[in-house]
Design brief:
Elements (H helix, E strand, L loop, with lengths): L3 E4 L2 E4 L5 E10 L5 E8 L12 E10 L6 E6 L5 E6 L8 E6 L14 E5 L16 E9 L7 E11 L10 E2 L3 E5 L11 E8 L7 E2 L7 E10 L10 E7 L18 E5 L9 H12 L6 E8 L2 E10 L27 E5 L9 E3 L14 E6 L7 H18 L17 H14 L9 E5 L8 E3 L27 H4 L9 H7 L2 H14 L6 H13 L4 H8 L17 H22 L22 E7 L2 E6 L4 E7 L9 E3 L3 E6 L6 E7 L5 E6 L2
Parallel strand pairs: 8-9, 13-19
Antiparallel strand pairs: 1-2, 3-11, 4-10, 5-8, 5-11, 6-7, 6-10, 12-15, 13-14, 14-16, 16-17, 17-18, 18-20, 19-20, 21-23, 21-24, 22-23, 24-25, 26-27, 27-30, 28-29, 28-31, 31-32
């Protein structure tokens, strides 16, 4: 039996190793700042370790009416930080005689507030037992992550050292690449990036990687910072990386077979217990033919501690291997050079209003609520010139004005003149298929190349799909039915609404035709259930071993983590839930996507330009095109992409299907226009 007497914060031990140090409390600020409550520790002999002597337990008493706002961590004298409890307890209150021990039967993640008793911490308490001298200042670090809502107070806390110290999981080998980062004692801030060292052990596909292997895939400097909005409150953090030289200059490198670049992301995916929602969605988008970031699952060691499975992926960026559009230079302020390339986004607004402009089209289902703000991504807000900013804003305004016009689908004045309609259809299909809770209102990107390179606004790339495929307990995200683009019907009070663009497009019969035709084409290929299941099997199969490592250090399987709705007992159950959701969602989408009365001729008709229900066309032979005319007689004339007339007018006598002879044409894009009715068709002659 051990006995400890404590007075004035100093321990008196009666012949046994256990020593407890008590600290005072104080106000927990509610202004967004964090606070450290210190305990000076002395009189410990020897270094802390996981076998003979080290930290055993931390206990706290705190009053707070909404404990999910609190992030509570232990900070050792050497700077090692261990999350004890981060955003747990929902709207419950108080930590009352709450103790954290690494071998406790219940995790704090799965417990309910008010918290009373002994729990496993959210992080690995044993990480502080790393050979450091325990004498020095220990801190309880508390951050209220929901500012200006609820006040709180720490009444007291204590730390106990003894001969039954906490241990921790140490990675020794993995089927995944092992990525090792050392910040050399520096904290990783939100901004700016700090210089750190990174090494990658990867012996190739299907070959095991051991922690004792040399860094054989990358060894060098990086810049690293925290990244994420709502995810920044999770104990498992996401990071932005740049590959640097020793002077802090960006250097392009090819990692995991991806095109050489310097900007990368380490995505934590803490609340996605399948660990694969982002990777699956991006892979599916690429299979559809739309660029999305390439990914590689990796095991990550940060400053000597294993921190779990991460998705290493490309950052969305203008680059020949990523978003392949022109790079605007400071001298590009007029002519064709001014027209591209731009990346813009609809996202959460950082700072005072964000950097961009307000859409002239309000959200469809909450027109009196918060406006949709469109932000500059590339060029960056601090790099874009006023001429460039004015151009891209005016271009988008013109697109929005076209949506509001009397004939929104006209190819010369309507939305098809401004956007690549098929890219918008693909983006909507992907977002609806996985039912992304943030879809079309947060982390939604668009891009535009120079006019000489096509020049129309395109939707994408896809980004941030962890709250999808049933992984959300609000606004009906968990339901297999319902439309993402009509989010405002369910959650009209949410501060971030879907742009009115999408409802306008869905109200247009011609866009609905494109959408349905794309679905019919893709559902037997990359969006078939067979392809979807094969993709899930491949990704989850690579994680069979490392998912166990991840959930050893983050013991959240079977427990609620915001915003989970479906909670499985194990990893296989999480993957099965995802698979089930996609199967049910696929069937609902197939049954509920709008139907079209026009034939789908994707191979010969540029569907993105099919703007009228009055006519349709397809090739019958090299020199004939069939035109179905429903508006009565008219004169059809063929033009090239530059507007030049290529054929004599061909009259149709009335409603019906007519054969229009064509001259000998090289492969390319042509416009068949009815000079009587004003309707037109974009016809693609295969090369």
């Amino acid at each position: 039996m051990r006995m400890v007497l404590v007075a004035a914060g100093l321990p008196f031990t009666l012949g046994l190793a256990a020593q407890t140090f008590n600290g005072l409390g104080g106000i927990i600020p509610d202004d967004g700042s964090s606070v450290d409550f210190a305990i000076p520790v002395n009189a410990l002999s020897g270094a802390l370790d996981t076998s003979a002597f080290g930290v055993e337990q931390v206990c706290i008493n705190a009053l707070h009416p909404w404990v999910a706002d609190l992030e509570i961590s232990l900070v050792a004298p050497d700077g090692t930080m261990v999350p004890l409890s981060v955003s747990n307890g929902g709207d419950g209150n108080n930590y009352t005689n709450t103790c954290f021990e690494q071998d406790a039967a219940q995790s704090i993640v799965g417990a309910a507030a008010p918290f009373t008793g002994t729990f496993r911490p959210q992080g690995q308490l044993g990480l502080v037992n790393n050979g450091q001298n325990g004498n020095g200042t220990w801190n309880l670090h508390i951050h209220d992550n929901y500012a200006f809502a609820d006040a709180g107070v720490l009444l007291s806390w204590s730390i106990t050292f003894g001969n039954d110290p906490a241990g921790y999981f140490a990675l020794t080998g993995s089927d995944l690449p092992i990525l090792v980062i050392n910040t050399n004692g520096q904290d990783i801030p939100n901004d700016p990036k700090i210089m750190a060292e990174m090494g990658i052990i990867w012996n190739g596909p299907g070959v095991r990687n051991e922690i004792t292997d040399p860094f054989n895939h990358y060894e060098g400097r990086i810049g690293i910072e925290l990244r994420g909005a709502s995810s920044s409150s999770f104990p498992k953090k996401s990071f932005g990386l740049e590959t640097w030289d020793i002077f802090g200059n960006s250097i392009n490198v090819s990692l995991f077979g991806m095109p050489a670049e310097n900007d990368w992301v380490l995505s934590a995916g803490y609340n996605d217990k399948s660990l694969l929602r982002n990777a699956f969605t991006y892979a599916t988008s690429r299979a559809v033919g739309r660029y999305a970031p390439r990914t590689m699952h990796v095991d990550v060691i940060l400053n000597g501690a294993y921190i779990g499975v991460y998705t290493f992926c490309e950052k969305i960026k203008r680059d020949a291997g990523r978003v392949d559009i022109a790079t605007l230079q400071p001298v590009d302020i007029s002519g064709d050079e001014l027209t591209g390339g731009y990346i813009i986004k609809v996202d959460k607004v950082n700072g005072a209003g964000g950097d961009g402009w307000t859409s002239i089209l309000p959200p469809a289902f909450n027109p009196g609520g918060q406006d949709v703000h469109i932000q500059y991504e590339e060029p960056a807000p601090d790099e874009i010139l006023w001429q460039q900013a004015d151009y891209i804003e005016a271009y988008v305004d013109s697109f929005e004005t076209a949506l509001l016009s009397a004939n929104p689908a006209d190819t010369t004045t309507g939305y098809p003149h401004f956007i690549d309609v098929t890219s918008f259809a693909d983006h909507l299909l992907m977002t609806e298929l996985v039912k992304n809770g943030d879809g079309l209102r947060i982390s939604t990107f668009y891009y535009k190349d120079k006019n000489s390179n096509g020049g129309k606004l395109k939707a994408g790339p896809l980004w941030d799909y962890d709250i999808s495929m049933g992984n959300g307990n609000y606004c009906n995200i968990w339901r297999v039915d319902g439309w993402v683009h009509r989010f405002g019907e369910v959650c009209g009070g949410d501060g971030y609404q879907v742009s009115g663009w999408w409802e306008k497009l869905m109200n247009d019969v011609h866009f609905r035709h494109v959408l349905r035709c794309r679905w019919e084409e893709l559902k037997t290929g990359p969006l078939s259930l067979a392809a979807i299941n094969a993709r899930i099997d491949s990704l989850s199969g690579h994680l069979n071993e490392s998912q166990g490592f991840n959930f050893t250090v983050w013991p959240i399987l079977g427990a609620y983590v915001w915003p989970n709705h479906y909670i499985a007992a194990d990893y296989a159950g999480e993957v099965d839930t995802l698979r089930w959701f996609l199967q049910e969602r696929w069937a609902w989408l197939d049954a509920n996507l709008p139907v079209t009365t026009l034939p789908c001729q994707q191979s010969t008709i540029g569907l993105e330009e099919l703007h009228t229900t009055s006519s349709s066309a397809h090739f019958e032979a090299d020199d004939l095109v069939l035109v179905t005319n429903e508006q009565g007689k008219g004169l059809w004339v063929l033009h090239d992409a530059g507007g030049r007339t290529l054929s004599a007018p061909v009259a149709t006598l009335g409603p019906g299907t007519w054969r229009i002879p064509l001259p000998d044409l090289p492969g390319g894009v042509y416009l068949l226009r009815n000079s009587t009715t004003g309707s037109s068709l974009r016809v693609v002659r295969p090369h």
